[in-house]
Structure formats: structure tokens, C-alpha cells
Design brief:
Layout (H helix, E strand, L loop, with lengths): L1 E7 L6 E6 L6 E5 L2 H11 L9 H12 L2 E11 L2 E10 L2 E7 L1 H11 L2 E4 L1 H26 L8
Parallel strand pairs: 4-7
Antiparallel strand pairs: 1-2, 2-3, 4-5, 5-6
Length: 152
């Protein structure tokens, strides 16, 4: 997957990072916080800051210790919350570090690590998106109903 971009949910005004598979055109929108969106945006826009941000600091620490971020992986979707792992190699041993997807993505962008999404997560996300569209359609229909027309 690659970061396809950032956008803002027009209903909640919450930032969304869009992960995209360039081969299959699968898309995974993940709602994130403003600070994480800023960290991702500065890297996408190649903005150079005078001082390191948190994710720059994480990269610097890992590099100084000789560790390498191998990949990040969005592993689960539970109760509308995404989970991720950062796979780090240090001294020939691989560690899996629990992370929010937004932090893992921000770190992957800074280290050049690949971004993966578990197939089950993609399927759950697709189902959730279909349900959301159905709910929006139902909401739109309900808003058009004239309450005075149908008396019980």
C-alpha cells in the first residue's frame, strides 16, 4: 500500500489518511488525529522543519541504535478502531511493536518502510463502507419523509 493522500471528513471535520494499493486499486480510509495528520502531511509535502517532530525523533533513535523499520502492517479492525504493528530489526532479531496506524504510517514515510494491510482488515473495511453508504441513503430517505403525511 501507499499513502494516497490526506483528506477531511466533511461530517466530523476529522482528518483521514487514505491508503491505496496501486495494483488492485483497493483503498483503506483511516480516521486519524490532527497531530498525526500533520506529521504525515509534513512528510508527504517534504517540509523541512528546524527541529525534529516526534516521528523524526523516533527515526533518529532507531537509526542511531542500528535498528531498521522493515515494514508496518495494519493488522486489525475492531469496533471501528484500526490496529497496527511496526516490524523492527535490531541485531538480527525482529520485533513487532504495537502501534496506532497513523503513527506507524508517519514512521514508515520517514524510514522508507513498506506499508501492508491485512486482507481481513480490507474486507471488514469494505463491509463497513457499504453499511455506511446504506445508512447515508436511509438517512437521506428519512429526511425526505413529511411527518404529517403518514399518521399512525
Amino acid at each position: 500500500m501507499i499513502v494516497g493522500g490526506l483528506t477531511v471528513d466533511p461530517y466530523t471535520n476529522t482528518p483521514i489518511v487514505i491508503l491505496k494499493d496501486p495494483e488492485t486499486e483497493d483503498v483503506l480510509p483511516i480516521w486519524i488525529g490532527f497531530f498525526e495528520a500533520s506529521a504525515i502531511a509534513t512528510q508527504l509535502e517534504k517540509v523541512k522543519l528546524a527541529r525534529p517532530m516526534t516521528h523524526d525523533l523516533m527515526r533518529n533513535i532507531l537509526e542511531t541504535l542500528g535498528a531498521k523499520v522493515l515494514r508496518i502492517e495494519v493488522t486489525e479492525l475492531k469496533e471501528n478502531t484500526y490496529y497496527a504493528l511496526i516490524h523492527i530489526e535490531l541485531d538480527g532479531k525482529v520485533y513487532e511493536i504495537d502501534s496506532r496506524p497513523s503513527d506507524a504510517i508517519a514512521l514508515a514515510l520517514r524510514t522508507g518502510a513498506s506499508i501492508f494491510v491485512n486482507e481481513e482488515v480490507l474486507e471488514k473495511s469494505k463491509q463497513s463502507q457499504v453499511q455506511s453508504e446504506e445508512e447515508k441513503t436511509l438517512d437521506e430517505l428519512l429526511q425526505q419523509v413529511d411527518e404529517g403525511t403518514y399518521k399512525m
